[in-house]
């Protein structure tokens, strides 16, 4: 599939109820960099509160989906809206917007929205997903992340996490919140949002969801963050280790992060076998997979990024950024055990499943 270089940047803004999404959105659309942004807002229920709260210079900046949550009942409407805005907000064939922000309801699971943006070919050709931005309320995060599955998934799929209300939280609480965030997502950078300029700068730099056409250096693309990589066992007669040192979880959370590295190059055939086994069988349990693979016969790494059963177009880079040639894989999963995941990885090691 040929990918147009003229696609419109698209940002997905999510976060639990009361975490400050609309406040940030107000700041962003007042900035000159977002003066031509088109905002799609969804608020579940009959009263579209977010629509009333958003500041705007012209009424037509807001495209509102008010029949239900984007992530479930209005996914079709989202596709129609993204398709229609190209001509609804154009004059003399020139679009009146240069980027799109989708703000979800606080109760939304972003995963189905991300799947729609990847899987719908017409949408994919028109828009380039720059990243998922998740706001986290520092004061209430410990309660929210321990009680609400949607909040956990919002953090787990984030490419950028903006921490709000830090000035109202004590130091001990902030430490615990950051630790909990890292347990759910060790690769997404966490930025304070109390300083609007900092948050906006981080948003504008967000460009590492799709490895193809990305201007983000490889060293920043995976953003190892707090991830601790564990070598996969390459002994054909040995079973996978029982240790759980790379399984990052919190209490009885079903959302876990697994980080692996493979020291030897893998083959293209092994990658195909792995993906053919992983995606159909376990894709619905994969909130995110990111991998930088050392493939036999290639001068640079092969970069893979997926959401659930879907993969962004794979990128093949021309060179490695440093001397580290190990393959590295990060999985953020929901209700998927370590044993199940590691069994699926056996083809990469030349082993039978």
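^ structure tokens above, recovered residues below v
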């Amino acid at each position: 599939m040929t990918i147009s270089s003229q696609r419109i940047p698209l940002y997905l803004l999510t976060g639990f109820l009361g975490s400050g999404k609309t406040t940030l959105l107000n700041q962003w659309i007042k900035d000159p960099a977002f003066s031509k942004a088109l905002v799609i807002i969804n608020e579940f229920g009959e009263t579209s509160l977010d629509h009333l709260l958003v500041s705007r210079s012209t009424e037509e900046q807001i495209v509102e989906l008010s029949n239900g949550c984007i992530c479930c009942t209005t996914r079709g409407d989202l596709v129609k809206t993204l398709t229609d805005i190209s001509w609804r907000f154009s004059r003399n064939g020139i679009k009146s917007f240069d980027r799109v922000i989708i703000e979800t309801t606080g109760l939304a699971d972003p995963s189905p929205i991300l799947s729609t943006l990847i899987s719908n070919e017409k949408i994919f050709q028109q828009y380039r997903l720059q990243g998922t931005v998740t706001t986290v309320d520092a004061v209430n995060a410990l309660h929210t992340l321990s009680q609400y599955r949607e909040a956990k998934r919002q953090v787990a799929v984030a490419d950028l996490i903006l921490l709000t209300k830090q000035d109202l939280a004590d130091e001990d609480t902030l430490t615990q919140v950051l630790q909990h965030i890292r347990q759910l997502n060790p690769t997404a950078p966490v930025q304070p949002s109390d300083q609007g300029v900092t948050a906006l700068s981080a948003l504008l730099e967000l460009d590492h969801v799709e490895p193809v056409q990305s201007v983000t250096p490889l060293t920043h693309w995976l953003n190892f963050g707090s991830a601790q990589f564990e070598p996969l066992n390459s002994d054909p007669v040995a079973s996978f280790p029982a240790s759980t040192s790379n399984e990052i979880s919190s209490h009885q959370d079903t959302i876990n992060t697994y980080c692996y590295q493979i020291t030897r190059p893998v083959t293209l055939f092994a990658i195909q076998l792995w993906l053919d086994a992983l995606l159909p069988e376990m894709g619905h349990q994969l909130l995110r997979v990111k991998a930088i693979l050392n493939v036999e016969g290639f001068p640079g790494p092969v970069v893979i990024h997926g959401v659930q059963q879907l993969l962004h177009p794979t990128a093949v880079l021309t060179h490695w950024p440093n001397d580290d040639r190990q393959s590295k894989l990060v999985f953020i999963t929901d209700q998927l055990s370590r044993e199940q995941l590691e069994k699926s990885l056996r083809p990469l090691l030349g082993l039978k499943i």
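The longest strand covers residues 127-137.
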